[in-house]
Specification:
mainly beta; Methylamine Dehydrogenase, Chain H; 4-stranded antiparallel sheet; 26 strands
C-alpha cells in the first residue's frame, strides 16, 4: 500500500515513530487557494476525496485532494453572509451550509445558486444530515441555532417536521446512529435519542474547567446507549507553563475534536496552535504536535482516516480587534502515518 503524500516508511521507522510522542508536521501540505477570512468549519465527503471548507468570507469552497496531498479547487459558492458550518448531503455531491441571516442552503448538485432549505429566528450554528429513520432512510436535516432551538427538516417540505427547545444558544452538535448530542451556551450538554427526537434523554452541565469543545468527544464509545452512566473522562490539554514563571499556567480553548474513522482514537486542536492525538481508553496522548503558527479553528479526518486537515486561522477568542491583516489564514493537510492514530494494545476497541 502506497503512503499518502509520497514516500513510504519502513517498519523500523514506523516503530521508532510509535515510540516517540512528538509529532512531525514538516511534511504537511498547504491547501491551494484557501479562504480569504477565518475558517469556521470543514468536512470531508463520505464518498470521495473532496473537502468542503466554510469561511467568514461568505464562501464555501470544494477541493479535490489526490494521493500526493495536492489540492485542486473544484467549486466555489457565494452566500449573503459568513458561513458558520457545513456538511455533506449523505453521499451526494451537495453541501449543506447555514448562513447569516438565519437560513440553511444546499450548494452544488448542478445548482448555480444556493437553494434555501431551512430557517431559524437567529443564525444557524451547526448542521447535520442523517437518514430519516421513519421514512425509509430519506435525508433528514438537523439544524441547531442561536435562537435556542434544534429543528428537524424533511427536505421535501418547507416547514420543520419537529423541533426541540434548548436551555441556551446552540454552539455545537454531533450525531451518531440514533444519538444526537447538543452543546449550548452556559455549558449544557443534551443527549437526544432520535427515536424520541423532541425530548432530552439526558442533560448535564460540563464542569467550569472544561471548555465547550465539540460534542464529538462523546462519539467514540456511544456510552449513552447504555443505561449505566459513567463519569465523563477529562484530558488535560492545550495548556502551557511559561519557563520563566512556573506558578502560571496558560489554558487555551479546545476548538475542534474529531474521532478517527477507523481506530476510534481522537484529535484535539486549540487556540494555542497545536493539535494532539489521544487514546481515550488508555487515557494516553499518542502524539503531540508543535505550534503551527496560529490558532487552529477547525479540523477534519478524511473518510479513511489517512488525511488530517487543520485550519490555521483566527478563532475570535480575543475579539474583533485582534483579527488583523497579518493573521495567518490557511488549511494544512497532515498525512496520518500508519501508527499515529492506532490505540495502545488493550486500549480503544474497534467500534
Amino acid at each position: 500500500m502506497s503512503t499518502l503524500f509520497g514516500g513510504g516508511a519502513s517498519a523500523a521507522s514506523a516503530s521508532a515513530g510509535a515510540a516517540n510522542t512528538t509529532g512531525d508536521i514538516s511534511k504537511d501540505v498547504a491547501l491551494n487557494q484557501p479562504p480569504e477570512d477565518s475558517i469556521s468549519d470543514m468536512a470531508f465527503s463520505p464518498a470521495s476525496d473532496h473537502l468542503a471548507v466554510a469561511s467568514w468570507d461568505k464562501k464555501v469552497r470544494i477541493y479535490e485532494i489526490n494521493e500526493q496531498g495536492l489540492s485542486d479547487g473544484k467549486a466555489l459558492f457565494e452566500h449573503e453572509a459568513p458561513v458558520l458550518s457545513c456538511c455533506w448531503m449523505d453521499r451526494r455531491s451537495s453541501v449543506l451550509v447555514p448562513t447569516r441571516p438565519p437560513a440553511c442552503s444546499i450548494s452544488g448538485a448542478g445548482a448555480t445558486t444556493p437553494v434555501q432549505v431551512a430557517a431559524h429566528d437567529a443564525p444557524i450554528r451547526s448542521v447535520h444530515m442523517i437518514p430519516n429513520p421513519s421514512v425509509g432512510g430519506s435525508p433528514l436535516l438537523i439544524t441547531g441555532s442561536w435562537d435556542k432551538t434544534v429543528k428537524y427538516w424533511d427536505l421535501r417540505q418547507s416547514n420543520p417536521i419537529a423541533q426541540i427547545e434548548c436551555q441556551d444558544r446552540v454552539y455545537t452538535m454531533d450525531v451518531k446512529n440514533k444519538l444526537l448530542v447538543i452543546g449550548t451556551a452556559d455549558r449544557y450538554i443534551n443527549i437526544v435519542n432520535l427515536d424520541n427526537p423532541t425530548k432530552f434523554y439526558k442533560t448535564m452541565q460540563s464542569p467550569p474547567q472544561v471548555a465547550d469543545a465539540g460534542s464529538q468527544l462523546l462519539r467514540g464509545r456511544e456510552r449513552f446507549r447504555r443505561r449505566q452512566y459513567r463519569r465523563p473522562l477529562c484530558h488535560p490539554c492545550h495548556r502551557e507553563t511559561p519557563p520563566a514563571n512556573r506558578d502560571i499556567c496558560n489554558i487555551y480553548s479546545v476548538n475542534s475534536i474529531n474521532f478517527h474513522p477507523v481506530h476510534g482514537t481522537f484529535s484535539t486542536a486549540g487556540s494555542d496552535g497545536t493539535f494532539h492525538f489521544w487514546d481515550k481508553d488508555a487515557k494516553h496522548r499518542l502524539k503531540g504536535y508543535p505550534s503551527v503558527g496560529g490558532p487552529i479553528s477547525s479540523t477534519a479526518f478524511s473518510r479513511n482516516g489517512n488525511i488530517f486537515a487543520y485550519a490555521v486561522s483566527y478563532d475570535w477568542s480575543k475579539g474583533y480587534s485582534a483579527n488583523t491583516q497579518q493573521t495567518t489564514n490557511k488549511v494544512m493537510l497532515h498525512p496520518v502515518g500508519p501508527d499515529e492514530m492506532k490505540p495502545r494494545p488493550g486500549g480503544a476497541r474497534k467500534r
